Amino acid sequence: MKKRTDHADRLGEAMAARDALASALTAAGIQLPAMDVRRAWAGEAPYALVHLGVCSAPVAHALAEALGRGAAR
Fold first, then answer.
1. Residue 25 is part of which domain span?
2. CB proximity list for 32: less than 8 A, separation 6 or greater
3. Among 56, 51, 59, residue whose Cα is nearest residue 29
4. Hey, is 49 helix, strand or coil?
5. Rounded CA separation 27/71 (Å)
6. Distances, alpha carbon 43 to alpha carbons 13, 40, 51, 55, in Å
7. Paired residues of 37 in beta bridges
């Protein structure tokens, strides 16, 4: 049963990370169209993945600009 808890914990961690990233992007005026969480373990891989999906060139530029502003702080 421990494996189920570990997988649930990993999935929960990835979902929390996705939600935090979505909130930060929203605060910066950016919305990615298809953020999701996907399982990465094909056995015992230690994580789940936050899938950011695809975005248009203008959204990619806005994301780059927001990251640049944050890095400049």
1. 2-72
2. 22, 25, 52, 53, 55, 59
3. 59
4. strand
5. 16
6. 18, 9, 19, 31
7. 50
Among 39, 35, 36, residue whose Cα is nearest residue 8 = 39
Total domains, the chain:
1
Decide if pLDDT at 1 tops 50. Answer: no
pLDDT tens per residue, range 8-49: 888 899 999 999 999 999 998 998 888 999 876 666 667 788
* CA 34/CA 51 separation, integer angstroms: 8
Buried b (16+ CB within 10 A) or exposed e, 14-46: beeebeeebeebeeeebebeeeebeeeeeeeee
